[in-house]
């Protein structure tokens, strides 16, 4: 009977193994030789980067009964086949607002450190963020006030100067109607 | 004497989803030799609070404001070197997962001895001697032989004991225990808690015990702080918290403890989950899950109040304070729950919210 050790199926590794010695002839295919994010950050001018990013805001419908939460989705897309890095004014990369009131708060919520941030988009990456506006405006550290029925613009923008001009802002309009004017589902 | 005083601590994480406010305006103090419990669900900010005390918050996290006074000195103003002298020496931490906390390529003994050599200036032999004593003290059998074992050769309970030995190696004044018994079974848990208490009494060490197990808190702690959504919602001496809870969240936590012999069909739980810390609900953060919530709860965020007077809590050590609009008189329907005390065990074992007005 043929023994397993005579079959050649077993490979004996008799050589002394030294973990810090590396076989240079073999390189994993998945290993990238370039940090393309860093490279495109240094090679791609910011204005091209700005142009490559599109941003949109969407809500499931346009009309909402008062006192119901308004869910909205912010979608950002990098249209270029290379990574894009957008330098931002602070570590807060992007903000949302209602009629220009950031985070629907009339008092500043965050006091970010005075350092810049970087919003990194991978090649062709689409980022989606789901948020909600409770139809309330924060008026002090601990108090909120309901929004009156009417039309409101929900916007989202990347935290750069003149985001609107650079095409890094998206908006949508919603209407809040008094509850009596809608059916039970809030439609 | 106040050993640790945390004032208005705010810790934020800047992520691409938004700004996560993990700890929001948190203040508390711990006296020397005191056992202080921090309770809350996952994501309440308990661990981040402990890591902030050690200045171990990593990017993208930032300690945005506040002060952490340890023996009167602000840890946040210190240089990295000064903090390193305090870390592991005067303030030590028992991390949640012992297996991750231990370095797999060094022997357990060496890892403990390293801290002793570094902080106490002992030579190799003295450090080894002290390490063996410590391992023996925390109940590792044959400590001398086990000194040169690697972490994988220890069982989960033994690893946790080794981490406790490491934390106690330099006789710290403050021990931060971040869920030290979560990964262990109940018998080992009981042993370790007993050891911790005993060791704290022997070394006169103050303990900040982070847990989501209210039973553990009742057993070990003198005072408790209940956290929700990065904020404290109730602070009280442990007996008052159990016999007379003032915040609906505390009541919910206590009524969701399963008990042997309970004849209810289903375990009572707090509906819903902890809110997203990027976007806390307006008003009281707990209102979407609170059975007693009213419209005012959605419009106003209550500060920590003295339940008797309704005035803002003064922040003194032994006060009982809760963050609920009930105590400022703004809740119309009130909080209608009752605490049942099971006399046979002599402990408050049941808290039953009676009316669920959301029905």
From TrEMBL, chain A:
Name the record gives this protein: DUF7974 domain-containing protein
Origin: domain of life: Archaea
Pfam families: DUF7974 (PF25929)
Composition bias type Basic and acidic residues, residue spans: 9-26
Domain DUF7974: from-to ranges: 42-177
Stretches for region Disordered: 1-26
Native species: Natronorubrum halalkaliphilum
Automatic annotation (TrEMBL), chain B:
One Gene Ontology term, aspect cellular component: plasma membrane
Keyword Nucleotide-binding: yes
Subcellular location: Cell membrane
Region (Disordered): 340-359
Entry annotated with the keyword Cell inner membrane: yes
SUPFAM superfamilies according to UniProt: P-loop containing nucleoside triphosphate hydrolases
Membrane topology listed for this record: Peripheral membrane protein
Domain spans labelled ABC transporter: 4-254
GO MF assignments: ATP binding; ATP hydrolysis activity
Keywords (A to Z) from UniProt: ATP-binding, Cell inner membrane, Cell membrane, Membrane, Nucleotide-binding, Translocase, Transport
Full protein name: ATP-binding cassette domain-containing protein
Protein's organism: Natronorubrum halalkaliphilum
The organism's taxonomic lineage, starting at the top: Archaea, Methanobacteriati, Methanobacteriota, Stenosarchaea group, Halobacteria
